[in-house]
Amino acid sequence: xxxxxxxxxxxxxxxxxxxxxxxxxxxxxxxxxxxxxxxxxxxxxxxxxxxxxxxxxxxxxxxxxxxxxxxxxxxxxxxxxxxxxxxxx
Length: 89
Known about the structure:
By secondary structure, the protein is mainly α. It has one domain (23-88). 92% of the residues lie in helices and 0% in strands. It is built from 3 helices and no strands. The protein has helices at 2-9, 11-47, 52-88. α1 (2-9) crosses α2 (11-47) and α2 (11-47) packs antiparallel against α3.
């Protein structure tokens, strides 16, 4: 009962919670993408194979990493917007 009253009185609490969740998800995605890039670079150095199929796979991996970076930074930007919105309430 008191939790419901707290959320009714301070909706910024809920908005800051959503901002924290978005920031954690976006930050984790950025960190996981960086680890993924490092593993791919290590694997590429270890194999030393340069074929057409490897180049196509590498290009697809680069595109996917760029997408993950964009989504991660969008999550952080959304978290910032929610946090600013919570301050205004």
